[in-house]
Amino acid sequence: MIPPAVVTAIVFAYGLVLGSFLNVVIHRLPREMSLWRPRSHCPACGALVRWFDNVPVLSFLWLRGRCRRCRAPISWRYPLVELATATLLALVHHRHGLSVPAAEAAVLVLLLVPLGLIDLDHHLLPDVLTVPGIGLGLAGAAVEGWLLQPPEQRLAPLLDAAAGAALGAAIPSLVILVYWWLRGKEGMGWGDVKLLAMLGAFLGWRGMLMSLMLGATAGGAVGLVLMATGRGKADTALPFGSFLCAAGLVVMLWAPQLAHLLGWHLP
Fold first, then answer.
1. How crowded is residue 189: how many other Cβ atoms within 10 Å of its Cβ?
2. What contacts 127, CB < 8 A, 6 or more positions away?
């Protein structure tokens, strides 16, 4: 039998590769570029990145963060995204092992990482990630109920996920409509509605509410700091989706601990 630590290391290695692909998604998806063609290339000189220069993290270190051909700098974000994705997936395995909940959490990681960074850069949450994500969350809950729950409880995970998705869509929709009625403009984007519905589908209604509370608290704190330092105003647009994505990852990994702090009961 393979020791759990070895399996976690293997998951980490695969996570580096998946993180490398997420870098492509983060860069190309908001620009409406193909994820497959052209091959990875230097944005400065156009030189194709050869396979031995495309090894996650190691190639960046070997090339000292510069293009082999033109020596243009390569952003530190690339290895950081690879390491973050690998670390999150390793934490998922450490908590859940190789299981259906682990697969659900891994899919959520691979959705939230690009969504959070795309929103940070472009104030955009692509439907091509959030809408299928809602379906994947509901499907995962259905599979979990069928395989892991006794017959009388098989629908419970799906009902929880459906309630989370519905409530996750309803709360920000109400905020948008009320804010529009009061101020004549949108207080948040409709992409946040789909993102919060996706979080509800994966995390259930309790996890969705915890994510919303954490995301709103973090966003509010950052907004106050920006205003206090003169770098923002009360109406400065913040990438709320990025805060929700980070909060969703925290809830995904530490929901029981957070629920205990809040005095909530998790099923």
1. 19
2. 191, 194
CB atoms within 10 A of CB 93: 22
The residue to which tokens 């969705």 are assigned: 208
Using CA atoms, how far apart are residues 22 and 27, in angstroms rounded to an integer?
A: 9
**Residue in the block written with tokens 């290695």:** 13
Tens-binned pLDDT, residue by residue, of the chain (267 aa): 778 889 999 999 999 999 999 999 999 999 999 998 888 888 778 788 888 888 999 999 999 999 888 999 999 999 999 999 999 999 999 999 999 999 999 999 999 999 999 999 999 999 999 999 999 999 999 999 999 999 999 999 999 999 999 999 999 999 888 877 877 776 678 899 999 999 999 999 999 999 999 999 999 999 889 888 888 776 678 899 999 999 999 999 999 888 888 777 766
Model pTM score: 0.93
Written as six digits, the tokens of 82 are: 């690879």
